[in-house]
Amino acid sequence: MDQVVQHKPLTFKDYKSDYKPVWCPGCGDFSVLASVTKALAELQIARENCAVISGIGCSSRIPAYTSVYGFHGIHGRALASATGLKVARPDLTVIATGGDGDGFSIGGNHFLHACRRNVDMTYIVMDNEVYGMTKGQASPTTASDWEGSKLTPHGTGVSPFNPLAVALSAGAGFVARGFAGDPNGSAKLITQAIQHKGFSFVQILSPCVTFRPEQTEWKKIIRKGEISETNALAEAMAFLATDDGFSTGVLYETQRPVYAPKQEEKYSVKDIEASFEL
Ligand code: SF4
Ligand code: MG
């Protein structure tokens, strides 16, 4: 008779690597790492069947701090790498991660098309409205009157990018906002995002205590779980028309056809090499 091996359930600690994060003490990204690992533990995803993919930036270091497979790629290209991986290995749970500069500026075009394409993966953006790694320049989500950078001492004068509105307009089927100061709430959002079939986008407000110290006040103004989930696009858009950016929850979830290559579109390395032969 075969012996049945009983495995103990994995805890969130099992999804953390032995590397100590180099983030500044108090950075919101610590909490987002905790939320990601809690979500993976909640879903009991086998570590060998999961990959966290990132670009460049403080938050993009996150793959190194998890025990699942990871790829710390190039600036703005997390979604491109993650898309390639998921299409080639649809059996994997693929999570792309990064910051607002990486994801909405350098990687902005990838963001639009990932929403539109609807590959079954999750994208978590740790939004602190600043480029932290390069010492505090304004990012696409920075308010136009923020005068904290020497490069834009009179503010940027440019309207900030609204990530949730862009995701909805571009066709994302799952759109949510969390807050780093609410790790359990964010873990629930990430769990739901991973379970969603198709592209899921989760913005997590994650304070940069070094270059945006005023963001430590976010904990006083965040309204946890105040967003009401809807599957009506017009309703979700109407919510954003009056949104101040500080409510959290799932905004929108709907089911759309998921992009996956047809069998005949799968190429071997040999086919690809042959296509380059003149
Ligand atoms: Fe976090 Fe800001 Fe420090 Fe980067 S610079 S690790 S975002 S607190
Ligand atoms: Mg940032």
Structural summary, described in words:
Its cofactor is [4Fe-4S] cluster. The protein has 278 residues and is α/β, with parallel strands linked by helices. It has a single domain (15-274), classed as Rossmann fold (3-Layer(aba) Sandwich), CATH 3.40.50. It has helices at residues 29-43, 78-88, 100-106, 108-117, 163-170, 183-195, 218-221, 233-241, 269-275, and strands spanning 50-54, 69-72, 93-99, 122-127, 174-179, 200-205, 249-253. It has a 7-stranded mixed β-sheet, sandwiched between helices. The termini are far apart. The structure holds iron/sulfur cluster (SF4) and magnesium ion. Magnesium ion binds at residues 99-101, 128, 130-132, 139.
Biggest sheet overview? 7 strands, mixed
Bound molecules: iron/sulfur cluster, magnesium ion
Number of strand elements: 7
> How many structural domains are formed by the residues?
1
CATH class: Alpha Beta
Low-confidence stretches: none
- Average pLDDT taken over every residue: 95
| CATH topology call | Rossmann fold
Q: Quickly give the CATH architecture.
A: 3-Layer(aba) Sandwich
Comma- or semicolon-separated keywords:
278 residues, alpha/beta, Rossmann fold, seven-stranded mixed beta sheet, 9 helices, binds iron/sulfur cluster, binds magnesium ion
